[in-house]
Batch of 3 targets.
Target 1
Amino acid sequence: MRDLTPEDLDGWLRCTDAERLEELWAAADQVRRERVGDEVHLRGLIELSNHCVRSCAYCGIAKEHTDLTRYRMSEAEVLDCARQAREFGYGTVVMQAGEDYGLTREWIAGVVAAIKRDTGLAVTLSLGERPDEDLAAWRSAGADRYLMRFETSNRALYQRIHPDLGRRASDRIEQLRRLRTLGYEIGSGVMVGIPGQTIADLVGDLLTFRDLDLDMIGIGPFLPHPATPLGRAAVALYTDTPDQVPTGELMTYKMVALTRLLCPCANIPSTTALATINKKDGRELGLQRGANVVMPNLTPVQYRAMYEIYPSKACIDETGEQCHACLGGRIRSLGREPGAGAGSALERKHALLTESSQGHQP
Ligand code: SAH
């Protein structure tokens, strides 16, 4: 189970036998327990702006969506969220936004430095494909991690759903490598069930996670948004693609479980998109099938509905306090504990290397 070949991965992704799948869930849960423990790390999510220059065909905040009221949080608002994260005992804040150049290099650098100074929390940025100078400045200001999903490893599909910006070609995999050399911990991930996506593409995604040695891997079901071109065309495109991957929970759990087996030390969130398609216990099932992270939303309630990247997003009208109480309860109901500290995958990998090199000394 731990030495999976591409053929094994393909076989698991096609498997629908509930009894056999129990074996996959159990193997993923065991590796999770052995390698990253029972702690569930909490990353407080701050959705700081819904302005975006991109035209991603799947995304509800793409620039074409003119009916949307656009917002940008103030520095004071972001800092309040970060302080709340610390009060709740979260180890990390994630600052996410559309690709918004109104969030200038200097402004983000200042906010990152202020969060580090005020709270000491780990800071993850998820601000899209910014120039290297921005990424370097934010790292110098104290940012620890960068999160940018490559969405799909199928290049042709990626280009169809994520058009280039002007003449600058979008190559997120290359950018993740550059982020690594800048000293960031790197997070990425994919959507499952994109119209036009095949099982072979998902196998490619899994192998790419391993090749990039990602520290964090987020996997969520594609959710068609009616205000987007891909959302509107989804039904027709699904029937047109041979070997189309279905969107939905089961395929997402399989991807989460296989990712845990291939990348045992990674941080793997049980995503909000999963909680959206199964509001009752999607989050819990993700955590029982390989995931070890959740990302409670700290975005002030007045902005949440405007950051609707897909429809019926879970927790859209809850406050930070409500999300905090609800998630704490869900984690404890599984016999797990909210994690203490930053929960760094990189440190985990280093510790493992030191341990194994000491273990081999005469
Ligand atoms: N601007 C940032 C953040 C994007 S939103 C960036 O581009 O990296 C974060 C993630 O939400 C995206 O990477 C994508 O994987 C997911 N997402 C966007 N639209 C979605 C949809 N319709 N269904 C499911 N997930 C979606």
Target 2
Amino acid sequence: MRKPIVVGNWKMNKTVEESKKFLVEFLTFSLNKGVDVVICAPYTSLGFLAENLRNKNVFIGAQNFHYESSGAFTGEISADMLAEQGVKYVIIGHSERRQYFAETDDTVNLKVKKALDSAITPIICVGETLEQRDNGETNSVIYTQITKGLKDISSDDITDIIIAYEPIWAIGTGKTASSKQANDVCSYIRKIISDIFGVEISNKIRIQYGGSVKPSNIKEIMEQSDIDGVLVGGASLVAEDFTQLVNF
Ligand code: PGA
């Protein structure tokens, strides 16, 4: 049985002060213990959140990092720096990073390897544009992103990785993929994993859906056979909404 995982992606939202306000409210709710809960916050809030959520069964994630260990990379942050702040997860290859910050499948692959080396769980994002979907290219886009992103990853490491299917046209648009559309692609991702690593491993890896997930649609999404969790932007910013997602 794969343990469900609900991940909030705060993107470039919340100062430390605002993170504190979120936490005060969030800690008044009780959370479903059978679900892994992760908050991916801006760098400035990571240490504060990790410190205050220790022993609360909520883990902290980052939204990006550099694949090199150290050096002349002005403005970047390393995996070790994140780990030192208490970070346990990192989002890699989010479509916004691919679109605005020149992230490629090759840099995704380098980052996946570096995260694994640093004992940080990678959450690899893949997804097609609306144009690609309309042209019937969804599966080929996903295939390329997955196989390149996972290049040279061993079968020992693969089950430590989480894959998030996020159709770009559903992110922040209020347009959710239908649960069947989402599950079809998540099943296809599991099939790619099965072809590379075998069926047993493919049944262990966790695959999330992301894109306009909210309290009103979480139940139906989580009922799908190949969806093991969600990656949530907008609805993760409000403590009560995020709690409802965790307690789906
Ligand atoms: P959204 O974002 O939930 O606001 O659509 C999802 C994401 O970008 O991870």
Target 3
Amino acid sequence: MATAGSPPANRREIHVLADRPSLIEACATRILAVGRAAILLRGSFHLALAGGNTPRELYQRLAAHDYASHLDWDRVHLYFGDERGVPPDHRDSNYRMVRESLLDHIPIPAGNVHRIAAEQPPERAAELYAGELARHAPASPHGPALDLVLLGLGPDGHVASLFPHTAALEERERSVVAVNVEQLQSWRITLTFPVLENAAHLLLLVSGAEKAPVVAQALSSQIPPPLPVQRLRPRGEVEWFMDVDAASAWQGGRP
Ligand code: 6PG
């Protein structure tokens, strides 16, 4: 039974792995499988990457020969779920983290990497990125149709940079917005709910005991207001990949 604020359970799979290495392995295997199927079926794989800390190890794993050699990178297009309002060489830049952990190690054509130009003023960066999505991502009646969007989960239930109490949560027209995140005293540029919801696959990667409370609330709570992650109404498949620490407060949280 789906809880309030979560997609119908029949379209949601939850994987709980014993530890972080097996979590990273399972996630990398899934992404590779979805990517190879997309390339086989439609000739390309359009993947939006998450920022933050958790996915760095995943990207390093995907860059390793036993994974990277099984994807035709000429047919892969990489996007970003969100970006901090900083230049691409800044220590907080998601692009920098992805370049160091993945891009510098794979033969992906530069034109296939669709960076958010966060060195621009925030609203301009959002406009430019929306144009990049419109030009390169597959189109659909519901807007850009990415094959897979990888998301992390913040302790406050944010995904991408869709933070609680921000106007970005209400955006249903534009594919990308700039958001001034007061709780962080910083600007972010983020994909909006319509793009996340239109992806064929949403994959949430959550690790560590510090995320246990938000995971339990996201998967089991019906107490309003819903967390940003609970406001997602995905059309496609949703898969949660967690380790036992992150799932430890959720009632189904044992592998
Ligand atoms: C970002 C991310 C953000 C992140 C979560 C979880 O730019 O920080 O896009 O949504 O995924 O905050 O971050 P951790 O993986 O570092 O816990």
